[in-house]
Each structure stands twice: as C-alpha cells, then as structure tokens.
Amino acid sequence: VTAKQIIGFLPQDPVFYDDMTGEDYLLYMGQLGGLQKQEARIKAQELLDFFDLFEFRKKEIGTYSGGMKQKVGIAAALIHDPKVLILDEPTANLDPLGRADVIQKIKSLFDVSVFVSSHILSEIEQMCEDVTMIDQGKIVISDTIRNIKKGFISNLFILDTNMNEKFLKHLKDEEYITSIRIDDIDGKIHIIPKDPEKLRELIPQMLVKNKAILYSFHQPELSLQDIFMEIMSKKEGR
Q1: Is the residue at 82 inside a domain?
Q2: Residue 212 DSSP label
Q3: Quick check: 8 and 114 in contact, CB under 8 A?
Q4: H or E element that contains 199
Q5: What is the CA radius of gyration of the chain?
Q6: Within a domain: residue 176?
Q7: Angstrom distance (rounded) from CA 56 to CA 31
C-alpha cells in the first residue's frame, strides 16, 4: 500500500480546474486515486451530498464561493477513502460563515484520522482532540487539549454582582490584588490576585456584608492561544 493510497491532502491554496463541474472534478480525482469510474461516481455523489454541494454538482467550480471550493477540496482528498487526512489551513481566506461550515464538516468526519495545520488556535480547539504546538520547527508541547489545559491554570478571576462599582472600589485597595478593573466588553470585574485563596475567602464575606446579588464568580479556562502565548513568554524570559 503506497502513501498516496492511504493519505488524503488538502493544501493551503488548492488549485482547481474552474471549467470542470464539481461532480466531474471529484470523478476525475477519484479515478486518479485508483477508483473505477462507476465507483468514483458513486463516491463523488456521496461526498457532494455530505458537503451540501449536491445541488451544485453540475455547475462549474469557477462559479463556486470560497467555502464551496474548500469543501470540494476536502471531498477530493477523501474520495479514495484514505486512512489519514491532512488539511493545511483549511479555513484560510474564508468568511466567518464559511469557516463555521467547514469546521463543522471536519468535526463530523469519521473513519479517518485528521491532521490539521493552522495558525488559528481557536479553530484548532474546535476541531481537534490532540494538539502539537511548534515554534521555529521545534515541538514546544504535545498532548490532548484537555491535558494541556490541566497544566495551565488561569490566575484571572471574573466577578459579577449587582454592585460591581462598589466592589471595585473596595477591592482595588487590597494589598493582595495585583490588578483589578471592570472590563469594557462584558462589564464584569476582572481580578488578578497575589493570593487567590484570600480572594476566595473575602468575596462571600463581602456579598453577605453588602447584601449583594452574586451573578458569577469563576476562573475562566485558558484558551490554547493564551497557553501558547504563556509558553512563548516563558521561553523568551519575559
């Protein structure tokens, strides 16, 4: 079994024959992958249906949107039933709706191991279970996303009450608070304490004393982007 038979590949900037229809292109790619013509036609139609392109199968690829072309590219990489699918920046140059659609289709693939190369870590977080982060050609961390996140604990606390301004005024003078502010976007109090345990003890006391209503008090989970930046910061000694 050759690598070509077991691997499907979508390059970052796939090139198509714009004057071919989506169906004819997949039929052509299927035959190049070793399928008989009828087998390739059946598989092409299955993939066009899976990627919501069946009604456009007779239209030329040159008339397709960027998201449609990207899905045709993934379908072409899958048509010969590879065991491994490699996708290089699969959401590159797509608008938000196109990105969401392609990500959802990638997540729904089964019976194939999918490797995604991307600089957009928020999308990797949506698509993958395992991640390897690389900097200048060297692996800096490799594990399941769940295990990686367990090893990095956020030092940020987010507090939301019915009297945030009052709590801000009281807490900002506490010596164990490194920084505190009301966030411009969510309107909640963002706190970075020197002593997290002391903060956890004080907040319930303040709520009772001020008869305040607590909406939320938690440590947000770090994103892969946050973790990568922290790794790079430590590596560079910042």
Answers
A1: yes
A2: P
A3: no
A4: helix 196-210
A5: 25
A6: yes
A7: 21
Whole-number average pLDDT of the chain: 91
Cα gap 122→227, rounded to integer Å: 11
Q: Could you give the CA distance from residue 201 to residue 207 in angstroms, rounded to a whole number?
A: 11
- Residue 204: domain span: 157-220
**pTM over 0.85, yes/no:** no
**What span, in angstroms and rounded, lies between the C-alpha atoms of 76 and 98?**
18
On whether residue 146 sits in a domain, the answer given is no
Angstrom distance (rounded) from CA 71 to CA 51 = 6
Going by C-beta distance under 8 Å and a sequence separation of 6 or more, which residues neighbour residue 19? Answer: 60, 61, 62
Residue type at 108? S
Task: Write the pLDDT tens digit of every residue in 7-37.
Answer: 999 999 999 999 999 999 999 999 999 999 9
The CA distance from 53 to 69, in Å, is 10
With respect to residue 34, please indicate whether it lies within any of the assigned structural domains: yes
pLDDT tens by residue, 73-125 = 999 999 999 999 999 999 987 888 888 989 999 999 988 999 999 999 989 99
Asked if residues 171 and 191 have their Cβ atoms less than 8 Å apart, the reply is yes
Q: How many domains does the chain have?
A: 2
**Contact of 144 with 129, CB cutoff 8 Å:** yes
Pair 121, 10 in one domain: yes
